[in-house]
Design a protein that fits this description.
By secondary structure, the protein is an alpha/beta fold. It contains twelve helices and ten strands. The longest helix has 34 residues, at 300-333.
Length: 334
Amino acid sequence: MERVVLITGANSGIGLALCERLLTEDSQLRLCLACRNMQRAEAARSALLTSHSNAHVDLLQLDVGSVKSVLSAAQEVKARYNRIDFLYLNAGIMPNPQLDLNAFFKGLFSRNVVRMFATAEGILTQQDRLNSDGLQEVFATNLFGHFLLIRELEPLLSRLVWTSSSNARRSAFSMEDMQHREGRESYSSSKYASDMLSLALNRQKNSQGLFSSVICPGLVMTNLTYGILPSFFWTLIMPVMWLIRIFTNTFTLTPHNGAEALHWLFLQNPESLDPRAKYHSLTSGLGTNYTQPCQMDIDEGTSDVLYSKLLELEKEVRRKQSEENADEEICAVK
C-alpha cells in the first residue's frame, strides 16, 4: 500500500534532505511538499525527480504562519488523500536573530564552547512581531499553525514528527506569555512549547491511534543558521566547528546528517517509542550518523495546560476567520 508523507518546510535544508532520504528508503512513497514559496517548492520537486525519476511528489501551498492558509491547505489535503501516514512538522522561522558578540567571544574561549554552538544559549535573541492574524509570528509559524493543521487533519493522521531544537529551554517559556510577546527568545520558547505539545498529544490521542514524536537535528548549517552571523564570520569559524566536531556528536552540520532522526523514526513502531524522549540526530567524529533518545525537561501537567490554552486560542481564531469570511461575502455581494 502506498504511504503518504506530508512535510512542511520541505523545499530546502533538513526538510528537503528528509525527502531525499525517504525516497531512497521507499521509492513508492507519495510525498507532499507543503511550502509557502511555490517557486522554491517546484525547484525542490524537480531536484527530487532528477534523482528519483519515478517518485510521486506532490506540492501544496501552505504558510503555517497564516490561519487562512492553514485552513485552506487542510481542505485541499482532505480532498486529495484519504490518509496521511506521516506528518512531519518541520517548517520554522527565527526572524531577525541578534548575536551578543561579547558573550560569543567570551564563550568561544571557555569550556562551554561546544554547548554555546550547539544551543546558542546566552548569545542569541530574536525580534518577533505580530502577523496578520494578530499572533506573534514565531509562535504562529513554529507552533500554532502546525497545531491548527493537526486539528484539521486529525481523522487522517497516525504519526506526527516535530522538528524541535537543542535551543528549546524551559527557562525561555512562560505559560502566562505563551506567545512570547514580552521576551526576546521566541524561537526557544516556541520549540519548548512544541516539545510540551507533543507530550500532550500523546496523552490525549494515543488511545485513538495517533502518535507524536520530537527530534533535534543537532547543529546543522541551513539558511536559518547562516542568517545568525555575517558570512565572513562563518568563513572564520567553520574550520573551528569542523575541529570541534571530532570531540562532540551534536555537530551534524549537514542537512542530510540532521535529518537522521527524522528518517530513523520513519522506520520505527510508534508504540515502542518514548513519548517523553527527544530523538537526537548525532554524527560521530568519523562521520557515522545515528539516533539517540534523551529525556525532555517537561512535565505532564504543564503540557496539558498548554494543550487546553491552544484549544481556546483555536476557537478564537476560528471565530475571527468566520467573521472575516462573512465580511468578504458581503463585500462580494455589494
